[in-house]
Amino acid sequence: MTPEPLLQIRDLHASFVSYRGLARVLNGVNLTVGRGEKVGLVGETGCGKSLTMRAVLGLLQPPRARVRGEIWFAGRNLLALPSRELEQIRGREIAMIFQDPMAALNPVFTIGDQLLDVIARHPKGRPSATEAWERALAILREVALSDPERVMRAYPVQLSGGMRQRVLIAMALVNEPALVIADEPGTALDVTIQEQILLLMRSLVDAKGLSVLLITHNLGVVRALTDRVYVMYAGSIAETAPTADLFRTPKHPYTQGLLASVPKLSGEGVPRGIEGMIPDYLAPPPGCRFAPRCPFAQPRCQQPPPWVTVDTDHQVACVLYDAAPAPRLP
Amino acid sequence: MSEPLLRVDNLVKHFPIRAGFLMRQVGVVRAVDGVSFSLSPGETFGLVGESGSGKTTLAMTLLGGYRATAGEIWFRGDNIADPVARRRRPALTKEIQVVFQDPGSSLNPRRTVRQTLEVPLRVHRLVSTHGEAARQIARLLETVELPAEFMHAFPAALSGGQKQRVAIARALATEPSFIVLDEPTSALDVSVQGKIIALLLDLQRRLNLTYLFITHDLSLMRNVATRVAVMYLGKLAELADTASLFGNPLHPYTRMLLSAIPVVSEAEERLKPRWVVPRGETPSPARVPPGCSFHPRCPDAFAVCPRIDPVAASADGRHVVRCHLYPGCTPAEVADAART
């Protein structure tokens, strides 16, 4: 039942030259987003999730960044594409929704100016002025903004946080991209508004049959919006599974630790979290990068972890599942 | 209940909006608009509310950062809402401390940990010699479970969790009895958050601290607060013991808030109240709707709500709510007038 892949990241490595040495951040990322699939990429600060997104958008450039691997999008390897062709894809076939709507909108232009700019870059060519205006109003109505004419004439500061986030969604969707990458959408907003934004995104994306790559640290948001989840730790994928499976039966010790760290509504106290810190990318541990923090670490963890299929569509990068019964955190 | 450590009585903080050449006042931002509550020693009082609800203004007014427009703040027999009284008792500023959200910006990047921690000790003349200061700083670092060598480090060399520990040590330097924690773990990863919270709760037990805990993370609030107040547009909508507020939310806004929490398991999903379709956004506190300020977003609003602002009432003396759905919340004389 796996859909046809739209975005396929294969063995993506990225390192950065810093004055202290070479930081090996992305360490063989493998990730697939199927057509019409909503995929979540979760991980904590510094795990490389935003870098993965930047690599897909072609924003990691030499000489500072060294990128190796393949990023296949609709039959083309984005890493091998000249920047001219990449520009044609970025913003048209792949759209972005950023976290902070105030920073992503230009404060000195009206929403109309900015939205019409995007529409002028439609892959099927620049529409006439009246046609563009009509399309802008239509998409603002679709994101449930009442009084779209007023919004078109407004500057970003004149809108509330929730309205600005809706405008960003409208801008991302107006040219009917195949893939939307959303970086922490709505997490800068309050919960009641965040929920409205997530509900809106889900209904629009489903109605248009788009693919979504949702990048976030918020496990609750991933659970609410996605079909499938990738858990990232220190530059590689630790585990992937259909969303319901991952939350019901997490396998990787990191995933288990992360889920256990979230304070629960049942109110049995705040969990201790995971001991230790993410590794120094200048000198990452050999083998499994989680091993120094892992309660189940063993000598075999000094080698790179195997990629084990534990269930249908459920894979984990951990020696514990390499022909061994599954333990669980107490 | 024991004698309260802090009692806030009908506290109001309005900011004037000025415009034009003569800077005439053209409006008013009702950031805090009549808030009353009291804190018992040793408790963790949670304050929940969305951005613009006034929770940070309330905290800043308690800290003395803003001068209250009206109302009283009683702390150890003094009304500290009065700036004259506050100045008369400099020891009070020692007693009340704060830990901010983002240690990346609340610590001076050009000061070492030692220099940062020395400031409160010097200002309040708690140490007189260099050696005494060094000993005291080492002791403070030990209290927040950091090695003494860290006193020579700059904030940039520390992780987010370590920086927040330094910020906590700074708050503890003057041996306060009351600490305002304004989103102390929101800037941290969830796997680090637990250790900071554990430290805060441990310090509270050992030093008998009283906390005002502000967070927008309701799941976290459920686990740390003893009582929770829900704030909306400068007023308290509901105030109750934590278990009671989460288990039996009365105010429609509290229900909307709780039902919107993103959770990570089916079991937790069942602990949320019946789903309330979220709608609307918090209006600007400069344009507060008439009557009950929540009525434009309220799924249960009825005729009286847009006309009359409800008053706080409680059926059992502990669970306080301010909503016309509950007896005692509609001001009596107005209700009588409406009936006739």
- Beta-strand residue percentage of chain A: 15-25%
| Shape, principal axes of CA atoms of chain A | globular
The radius of gyration of chain B is: 22 Å
Q: Helical region count of chain B?
A: 13
Low-confidence runs of chain B:
none
Number of domains of chain B: 1
Radius of gyration of chain A: 21 Å
Instruction: Using the coordinates shown, work out and report the CATH topology of chain B.
Output: Rossmann fold
Query: SSE order of chain A, as H and E?
Result: EEEHEEHEHHHHHEHEHEEHHEE
Described by its quaternary structure, the protein is: heterodimer
Pfam family, one (chain B): ABC_tran
Domain ABC transporter (chain B): 6-258
Organism (chain B): Candidatus Segetimicrobium genomatis
Protein name (chain B): ABC transporter ATP-binding protein
Short description:
Chain B: InterPro entries: AAA+_ATPase (IPR003593), ABC_transp_ATP-bind (IPR050319), ABC_transporter-like_ATP-bd (IPR003439), ABC_transporter-like_CS (IPR017871), Oligopep_ABC_C (IPR013563), P-loop_NTPase (IPR027417). The complex is a heterodimer of chains A (330) and B (340). Chain A has 330 residues and is of the alpha/beta class.
